[in-house]
Predict the 3D structure of the following.
Amino acid sequence: MQLDPNNPTIGLSRGALDVLRERLRQATDEGWTREHDDAHRNGELLEAALCYARVSSWADERQRRYLRPSGWPWAHSWWKPTTRRRDLVKAIALLLAELDRLDRAQEPARAPAEIAVEQMSRTFERITVRHVFANARQIARTRKASGANWVFAMDLFGLGSTYAHEICLRMGIDPDASTATPWPEQTP
């Protein structure tokens, strides 16, 4: 089999495509998400795959349809054999689900501190100097009732009047006003 980058199936065989379609169907139609699969830590996915693989080798159509092989891990209503080929597709898709589950289980658990740092970084990426200034201005309003934004910027950043005036302009804040909007992007 050769991979063809111009072909959307990248040279996959019909069987491989059917297995991938079955995995997608299991997730979208049946609701068997990663989280659902991850809950089956006792080999249920593997056992189900083995049952479908085993029954696909049975030549007697009536046996395949009505006899459930031993080891089926779930309720009888979930046992749905069809044709030999379709049962093999289901078996391989279930094996793939188990393989993916094992891979996810091997991923190192992230420490709560690492998760907190990542969340903090995402928050900092959203905050601009303007947001900091506007929120500082809101806090200061309770302490200083009046004063132009450029005067407040002088105190806040330790700047001279010209620089304080300019920094207000660069932040999109009216230097002569006595208030600043904390989230101007969300004004009605």
